[in-house]
Write a structure and sequence with these properties.
Largest sheet: 10 strands, mixed
Shape: elongated
Structural class: mainly beta
CATH topology of the largest domain: Thrombin, subunit H
Strand content: 35-45%
Helix content: 10-25%
Number of helices: 2
Length: 292
Amino acid sequence: MTRETTKSRAKARVKAVAALRAQLDDRVGSRSDILGSMLAVKLQGGRPTDQIGITYFVREKVAKSELSPRKRVPASMRVGDEVVKTDVIAWPRMAEQATQIAPTIVSDGRTQGTLSCFALTGSTLFGITCAHCLEGVDQNPATPTVVEYFGVDKRWYPTGQSVYLAYAPGSAVPGNFGYLDCGLFELRDPTLAARARAAKPLRVVTDLHSLVNQGVFGFSPLEPLSSPAPLRKALVIGVEAVAMGERCDVVLNVDPPGTFRGDSGILWITQDGRAAAIHARGEVMAGIHAVV
C-alpha cells in the first residue's frame, strides 16, 4: 500500500466518523465529565495508532475500575454497520502564546508574536500573524496600532499599522465552525516588502480531514536552551475539536522541546509544502507549551 493510498483511506475514515459524530456525542455526553471531543487518531502509550475515531476530553482521567459501567466511555461504539473507536484524554489549560518577555519578530508595543506569512492584495503587501499579537497597548482590536519587527541586528523597526483583526474562538452553532485568530499589518518597511515580493505563493490545505495523523512542521524565532534549532515538528492528532464552548480546527502534539510564549503566529506546513494552520494557543505545563 502506498503512502498516498494510506492517506486517502485515513481521510475517508475521518469523513465517515464525522458523519456519525453527533449521534456518538449524544450517547457519551452524559456518561462522565466530558468537556468536548474531536475527530482524531487513537493514541496508545502516547503514540499514534492507525485507528481513527473520536477522542473525548475530560478534566481528569480516572481509572476504569473507579467508574461505574454507566460512567465509562465505551472503547468503541456501533452505529448501524459502522464501529467507531474512542479515546479519552485530559484537556489541559490553554494559553495564547504571545509573550511579554522575549522579542521575536513582530510586536504591537505590548506583546510579541511570529510572522506567519505575507499577503498580497492587488499591489498592496501585508504581513499576517495572530490577531491577539496585534491588539496594541490599548488591547482594543478595533483601533490601529503601530507594528514593529525585530531585525537581524537585534533592533526594532516600525513596518506600519495593523489594518484588520479577526479573532473568534468559534461557536457551537451549527454552520459556524472554526477557530479564527489572524490579522493583517502594513508592510511599509522596504526590507520586509522585498522579502514579500520574492516569496513563493503558498498552497493551502482545503480539507482538514486530510490532516489527521499527518506530520507538519514550522519555524520558530525562539531558540530554547534545550534545542537551539528553530524547526518545530508536530503530529496532527485531531481536527474539529470542541472543548468548553470553544472550537479548535487543528490539534497538534509537538515534539520536544514543544512551543513557547512568543510562538503565536507560527505557520504549520504539511510535508508536501501546504499551509495547514496558524499557531495560536498552547498547553501550559511546567513552562513548556505543547501546541493546540
